[in-house]
Write a structure and sequence with these properties.
Shape: globular
Mean pLDDT: 86
CATH class: Mainly Beta
Number of domains: 1
Structural class: alpha+beta
Strand content: 15-25%
Radius of gyration: 16 Å
Number of helices: 7
Largest sheet: 6 strands, antiparallel
Distance between the termini: 23 Å
Oligomer: single chain
CATH architecture: Sandwich
CATH superfamily: Jelly Rolls
Low-confidence stretches: none
CATH topology: Jelly Rolls
Length: about 170
Amino acid sequence: MRQALYILGQLNDSDVLWLARHGTVRRLADGEVIVHEGRAINAIFITLGGQFRVVLDDGQEVSRMSAGEVVGEIAFVDASPPTATVAAVGEATVLTLPKSALQEHLATDDGFAARFYRALAISLADRLRAATRRLEPAAGRDPAGEDELDTLVLDTVAVAGQRFTRLVQALAGR
């Protein structure tokens, strides 16, 4: 849910409405893959429900994700193919945002573009810091602060949670 808090906390209500209008809800079966390592993707995914596993080409599971995560954002930013495969664990649901629609909206709405790219930057910075912490020796770490949200996000957490709930409700009402 952390990524949704970063993203939806930076966007405004009309941005979230745009996501709901232009995205497609996709229900996944157990094991269904939404991203294949090394293959270009044409969408960003917001996980709405269920669990997902992130697996490297050698079969090693490196992460699990649940509702409120964003998948495919790195490949969206730099256009390189994904570095892992993402598959549903059990039944799951995602909001699929077509890359072409998102790029067009970013090109025509400067305010949305600024908010969206800021949200991605905050989210990716958090992910990089978490990866760096995992590489540090345990003796040099302060575990008390590892799960704390960045101060840039704290003020928007409640609003972001409400926006995620409204997004899910809007999509369910279709």
